[in-house]
Amino acid sequence: MSNTWWELQIFCETELEESVFWRLENFGCQGSASERKGDSSVVKAYLPQIKVHLLDLAALSLWLRQDALCFGIVEPELQWNLIDEQDWASSWKQYWHPQEIGDRFLINPAWLPPPENSDRLLIKLDPGVAFGTGNHATTQLCLEALEMRFSDYNSFFQSGNTKEDNAVIADIGCGSGILCVGSILLGAKKAYGVDTDPLAVKATMENRILNGIAAERIIAGEGSVEALVKMLEQPVDGIVCNILADVIISLVPQISAIAKPSTWGIFSGVLVEQSKSVADALEKHGWIVATLWKRKEWCCLNVRRS
Ligand SMILES: C[S@@+](CC[C@H](N)C(=O)[O-])C[C@H]1O[C@@H](n2cnc3c(N)ncnc32)[C@H](O)[C@@H]1O
């Protein structure tokens, strides 16, 4: 018997889109995507029918309307209907298009031919049900921060064997594996990804293969920092973590234990109003917050150990 899924459609102004994505992610949705028409957006998201009751959907509708009121934006409209798994697996994909991110990346859905004549680093992706298409501001901030980190290495080590060739990265909450793949394309030697969701681990391994990356260069495992500690031979050079602020704060002590004096970190998934509490937690554990990058209501903290 096929599984049944809720397909949620939110008709909103583009200004509200990021907050809608955030609500949907917290609500447990998977495979969300948006389509823009002028100033309006249709955000689509999916979740298994057994996970929520109609009453929950009514509550979600209320939260979305309250968010719009806070921002002084026209209230969005939420519609829902049931579809079967086969339809779900393909329906959101038609709204996802190749996307340039930062100065160097081009994200290309696995089922589309890559654009011709692009000199960008191509990340081919099929996220399955995992988070991380590159559509979300929090992922974009991470990819741009990774570009910055690796260009620092390049300009510092102009010739010969560069330090970047040896950089080992940890990606906590790897989702589709987009940041692991991005790190390798930028020149990392190895990326370790962990995620509490086994489907994200599967997606990361599949996307490694899709991008022709050798098995020993992206190692993915189920779990969180405690799993990472078991996988690592020594502290890492860089840490990227795009999870919500509360989770980051709870993980900071363990994360600090896999760092060495030269380690840098990229912490994303943080709402601007939560940035101070995340920065406080990091500083308490020996990190220096170097820069804070913002995109809409989200921000990303670029930190270093010394
Ligand atoms: C916002 S997604 C980020 C995915 C991808 N890294 C990106 O930047 O697009 C967060 C991911 O963290 C995972 N996650 C949530 N809590 C976690 C935890 N405590 N430890 C590890 N992963 C966690 C979720 O399953 C999800 O895949």
UniProtKB/TrEMBL annotation:
<keyword id="KW-0687">Ribonucleoprotein</keyword>
<feature type="binding site">
    <location>
        <position position="242"/>
    </location>
    <ligand>
        <name>S-adenosyl-L-methionine</name>
    </ligand>
</feature>
<dbReference type="GO" id="GO:0032259">
    <property type="term" value="P:methylation"/>
</dbReference>
<dbReference type="InterPro" id="IPR029063">
    <property type="entry name" value="SAM-dependent_MTases_sf"/>
</dbReference>
<keyword id="KW-0808">Transferase</keyword>
<feature type="binding site">
    <location>
        <position position="173"/>
    </location>
    <ligand>
        <name>S-adenosyl-L-methionine</name>
    </ligand>
</feature>
<comment type="similarity">
    <text>Belongs to the methyltransferase superfamily. PrmA family.</text>
</comment>
<keyword id="KW-0949">S-adenosyl-L-methionine</keyword>
<keyword id="KW-0689">Ribosomal protein</keyword>
<feature type="binding site">
    <location>
        <position position="139"/>
    </location>
    <ligand>
        <name>S-adenosyl-L-methionine</name>
    </ligand>
</feature>
<dbReference type="GO" id="GO:0016279">
    <property type="term" value="F:protein-lysine N-methyltransferase activity"/>
</dbReference>
<protein>
    <recommendedName>
        <fullName>Ribosomal protein L11 methyltransferase</fullName>
        <ecNumber>2.1.1.-</ecNumber>
    </recommendedName>
</protein>
<keyword id="KW-0963">Cytoplasm</keyword>
<dbReference type="GO" id="GO:0005840">
    <property type="term" value="C:ribosome"/>
</dbReference>
<comment type="function">
    <text>Methylates ribosomal protein L11.</text>
</comment>
<dbReference type="InterPro" id="IPR004498">
    <property type="entry name" value="Ribosomal_PrmA_MeTrfase"/>
</dbReference>
<dbReference type="Pfam" id="PF06325">
    <property type="entry name" value="PrmA"/>
</dbReference>
<keyword id="KW-0489">Methyltransferase</keyword>
<dbReference type="GO" id="GO:0005737">
    <property type="term" value="C:cytoplasm"/>
</dbReference>
<feature type="binding site">
    <location>
        <position position="195"/>
    </location>
    <ligand>
        <name>S-adenosyl-L-methionine</name>
    </ligand>
</feature>
<dbReference type="InterPro" id="IPR050078">
    <property type="entry name" value="Ribosomal_L11_MeTrfase_PrmA"/>
</dbReference>
